[in-house]
Request: fold
Amino acid sequence: MKITRVTEQVSLKRTIDQGTSAQREIVVNILKQVQEQKDEALKRYTAQFDGAELSSLLVTEQEKKRAYELVDADMLSIIREAADNIRDYHERMVEQSWMTTKEDGTILGQKVTPLDAVGVYVPGGLAAYPSSVLMNVIPAQVAGVKRIVMVSPPGKDGALPAGVVVAANELGVEEIYKVGGAQAVGALAYGTETIKPVDKIVGPGNIFVALAKREVYGLVDIDSIAGPSEIVVLADETAKPNEVAADLLSQAEHDKLASSILVTPSMKLAEAVKEEVERQVESLPRKEIAKPSIDNHGAIYVTGSLEEAVEAVNQLAPEHLEIMTESPLELLGSIRHAGAIFLGRYSSEPVGDYFAGPNHVLPTNGTAKFSSPLSVDSFVKKSSIISYSQQALQKNVSKIAAFARLEGLEAHARAVEERFKK
Reply:
């Protein structure tokens, strides 16, 4: 990791991968085939890309039972406890519909309505992600979504990872389908004989999943087009170099494009963390991923003061921010931009990834400057309520008509005036 003294703006913002023209063409073709051939296309692409020949897309009761046999009792207990923590946190976010009445009889308000159906994409590949199941499904359930559909790519044996199946079953997800990639996004957006369409698609995936989500946006809603994972550690001389290094590497092992950054006013800490990262990365099982991430996207910024360090963090607007200073809570009010904020040495980022309760689906690529974590709000829509009385409209008709004519919309003006013609 390179140590840089900060004298001007810092940035980790990278261009979100738009995919190559060839990749975009592949995605468009896959989506077209799913629209036209439906289940047949899903099975064909699953065989082509995942090497699995499927007779049925739906995870059966027998497959669920088998998954439970592969997950030990202690792990099952941990999944259940994590789910309880996540549900408890998200239940505190629920907003109620409301109305207010004014003296002239006007009634104004807002109606909060859950989405009818949501599709959750759970990535496959080299790792299994039961935590993604919990983080995407639970806020939708708390919001009141009645139909939740989960899709995930199967292994060559045609099965989903046991932990993923168990996590979904623990939450009561009935529709679990063994299909991934752009074809799964197409199935959720357009519908097939087996998979009925949804209103919103959430969950991370590879570049083909991201491009497919972008393609179907507008027909359905999506959560975001996420970039590689990021962590920024804001630390002073009281931080432990080995702990800081371990936390930086916890993100680096996600992806070769992941970004791990230390911001500190202490050159002594910077040098010690650099040495620790170089030592610890050598023993990581995912060294082939973590080392390129650290080498190409890792950084240590040394500032002139703690105040400058805080401003650097706000410029970075990271997905994950750890504050490892003598008094982390005192800095919280100064942090304007971060997806999730972890205070103190015992609030290591994986605590939030798996167990504490807040959602781990967070804004990346600097978008924490204007967006928020996945939440209950992500799964509801809000309708405005307006009920004017005769008295209220009569009092304001001339003002409304004048505003309409200012904008050149005569029919708007006449629409309110028509109520009071003699």
